[in-house]
Amino acid sequence: MNTKYIFVTGGVVSSLGKGIISASIGKLLQARGYKVTIQKFDPYINIDPGTLNPYEHGECYVTEDGMETDLDLGHYERFTGIRTTRHNSITTGRIYKTVIDRERHGDYLGKTIQVVPHITDEIKRRMLREDEQGEDLDFVITEVGGTIGDIESAPFMEAIRQLRWQLGRNAVCVHLTYVPYLKAADELKTKPTQHSVKELQGMGIQPDILVLRTERHLDDAMRLKVASFCNVDLECVVQSEDVPSIYEVPVRMQRQGLDAAILRKIGIPVGETPAMLPWNRFLEKQRRATREVHIALVGKYDLQDAYKSIRESLNLAGIYNDVKARLHFVNSEQLTADNVAEQLKDMAGVVICPGFGRRGIEGKIVAAEYTRTRDIPTFGICLGMQMMVIEFARNVLGYKDANSAEMDPDTPHNVIDMMEEQKSITEMGGTMRLGAYECELVPGSKAAEAYTADNSQLSTLYSQLTVRERHRHRYEFNNRYLDAFEHHGMMCAGCHPEAHLVEIVEIPALKWYIGTQFHPEYSSTVLHPHPLFMDFIKSCIDGTAQA
Ligand code: GLN
């Protein structure tokens, strides 16, 4: 079958969950045996979200090929298990950069370069994934960030209008709107939806399917009203009620026939509804996992989305271990030797979060010391791992001034620094190690055991003792100190096979004290939780059982 295109846009307000709906559509089509990809177009000027403050955009999600992207790509991967690439995350900045570079190169032969058609053509090219020949996809789902009517999203809407015309039935437009509930009137209001659709129609786009985001159930009469005001079939008005877990969304959408409506619009026989057994089994486990395990996230961004993939990885690993991971944010900027006992009281485990810059690092070091000396399961991720190393250097090896060259370029004990070896493997020009690199696990280490734990679900993903994990950092463990560390009990449990950069450290004498230079959270998915998170949670549970 030739490739079909699904465009997902949103109206009324932002944060309606377009990412989750796009991911759910992907999942449902996959369950019917189709090959799918999902891509996100963001209307801001930044070339990529890498430099965006997490307070504005939440976490930066990193693809295997080293692209710093929007956190929605994390949803796409967790829901569908597909591996996204740099071609799945596009911004206005990148579109303009391509066009301007081409113009400088003289490719336009002296023509005046304009938003229409040059920018819109470049958007269309990317929506059609013209650079990705040979992908053999059945469906390309394109989510456009922002809301209808934003000045900056106008070129994207124009591109969709043109593509719908060009592709005919091979394209479907899904529009997501908000249906507010007015408490005083005890009424749900569909007017904003009507206005949003009108605005879309004004841009020449007639949506095929409406997904109404609502806190209350919409009855058929309401759906019928929306259908008739918006020129949409009744069966194409789907509601997305608030649910306790985002992972319930695909089955809710399936029950309402969202995937069937898409197929019908395109003219593909709908066939039987797939059972989605593994997914439903996961949901069943999620519903039953009520026993709570308390885990602290020590970080500097007090915002749910800033550590999205870590949160989801812990949640998923919790569910597969039959517990509900209750996550408590602990602000590392306010964490001191005096209050750490109080702050981390009753925690079964502690995650020391990634980050950049000095702010809040001393608090992370305090946390690392507290959990190390009390044998509380601890998982340090990227900067978190580096802080475990610095704490060990200061308090066990006795290098009181130990630091990372990132925080103190003149420290005589640069246990974390920029390494010569890393230059041979990082891309030309960039100093940041980004994307997936191999890590050879040290046989017999706790980390190796975690990866190879007898779990048939995981064995296909992680072959033997070499794993591939994603990175996003500039500094590394300084190998000059490795002997001293190992002599005192902090071991290298995994390293890059050629450059010998330390990828994992652990203290084998403790229950679970592991730090990874990479970000395992980016590769946890609903059906394949990451083995390190699985093992970490297991050890947190064991700890509480003994207490
Ligand atoms: N700031 C550290 C580095 O660049 C760690 C980065 C991170 O935690 N992602 O090495």
Describe the protein's architecture and organization.
α1 packs parallel to α3, α5 (about 115-125) packs across α6 (about 155-165) and α12 (about 310-320) crosses α20. It is globular and about 75 Å long. The model is unreliable at about 455-460 (pLDDT under 50). The protein contains 20 helices and 23 strands. A nine-stranded mixed β-sheet has the order 13-12-14-15-23-22-21-18-19, sandwiched between helices. A seven-stranded parallel β-sheet has the order 5-2-6-1-7-10-11, with helices on both faces. Strands 16-17-20 form a three-stranded mixed β-sheet, with helices on one face. The protein starts with a strand and ends with a helix. The chain is α/β, with parallel strands linked by helices and about 550 residues long. The longest helix has 16 residues, at about 530-545. About 35% of the residues lie in helices and about 20% in strands. Bound molecules: glutamine (GLN). Glutamine binds near residues 354, 355, 382, 406 and 474.
